[in-house]
Design a protein that fits this description.
Alpha-Beta Plaits, 126 residues, flat
Length: 126
């Protein structure tokens, strides 16, 4: 089972400022643990939304909307993709995830299971 650990953005991540060295070290150590356990598939931080864009599909047309985007609570700052045996193992790793903006700052992660090919009817599999 694959799970994505999503780091929710905040004003700090949207400012484009890099995390403090101690936080980068904690995140690096955590991801090294994931790799050593054989569950890490990918992980990365994202540039702020001011450097991004959205493509909105509406009424049969695609419109490009450049960032930044106002609602930081709806944005993500980064993610970690893991492959584990079950939800309980994903939860155990998520509980160990370092505070995403440092121990003295509010932060939130969200964990979502990824759809697998076998989750879809056979006729729709690629």
């Amino acid at each position: 089972m694959r799970f994505m650990i999503i780091v929710r953005a905040n004003a700090m991540s949207e400012s484009g400022a890099l995390p403090e060295a101690s936080l980068l070290e904690a995140m690096g150590a955590f991801h090294e643990e994931l790799a050593a356990a054989g569950v890490l598939l990918d992980a990365m931080g994202l540039q702020p939304s001011s450097r991004g864009f959205r493509v909105r599909h509406q009424g049969g047309r695609a419109t490009v909307i450049d960032g930044p985007f106002a609602e930081t609570k709806e944005l993500i700052a980064g993610f970690t993709l893991i492959q584990v045996r079950d939800r309980a193992e994903a939860l155990a790793w998520a509980r160990r995830y370092p505070a995403p903006f440092g121990p003295d700052r509010d932060g939130e992660i969200e964990v979502r299971q990824v759809f697998e090919a076998e989750d879809f009817p056979p006729a729709t599999r690629a």
